[in-house]
Design brief:
122 residues, GMP Synthetase, Chain A, domain 3, three-stranded mixed beta sheet, 38% helix
C-alpha cells in the first residue's frame, strides 16, 4: 500500500525546494514584512553617513539634526542652499537614503535654516 506524504508540522517549511526549519531571523523578517511592521531607523547611522549620502559639496553646509516619525530634519547654513536643496535635491537625497535598507523607512526630509557649526577643537 502506498504511503501518503507527511503533512508538515506547525512551523516547518512547506516549500519542497527548501529543507529543514527556517531560522528565527528569517521567520521574524518574513513576519515583519507581511505585517508591515516599521523598522526603527538608527538616527546615529543616518547622522554618521550623511556625507556619504549627500556628498562633500553639501555635507559641509548641512547637518541632520532630528529624525522623528519618518521625517529627517536637516539644518542648512545658507538661505540660497536651503532653497536649492528644498526645490531641486529633496527627492534625490530621499531616494539615496531609501536605497540603503537601513534608511528605507525615512518618508520625508525637511530642510530648515540653521547656523554654522562651532569649529571643532582637536
Amino acid at each position: 500500500m502506498p504511503q501518503e506524504p507527511k503533512k508538515p508540522k506547525s512551523g516547518e517549511q512547506t516549500d519542497p525546494n527548501k529543507r529543514g526549519m527556517s531560522s528565527i531571523e528569517a521567520v521574524i523578517s518574513h513576519w515583519m514584512k507581511k505585517n508591515r511592521v516599521r523598522r526603527y531607523v538608527d538616527r546615529n547611522a543616518v547622522f554618521s553617513r550623511w556625507k556619504e549620502v549627500v556628498g562633500a559639496e553639501f555635507a559641509d553646509s548641512t547637518r541632520p539634526v532630528a529624525l522623528r516619525s519618518g521625517e529627517l530634519v536637516v539644518e542648512v547654513d545658507s538661505a540660497p542652499l536651503l532653497n536649492e536643496l528644498s526645490t531641486y535635491y529633496r527627492e534625490e537625497i530621499l531616494e539615496s537614503l531609501r536605497q540603503d535598507e537601513d534608511f528605507s523607512e525615512i518618508q520625508s526630509i525637511r530642510f530648515r535654516a540653521g547656523s554654522s557649526p562651532e569649529p571643532r577643537s582637536s
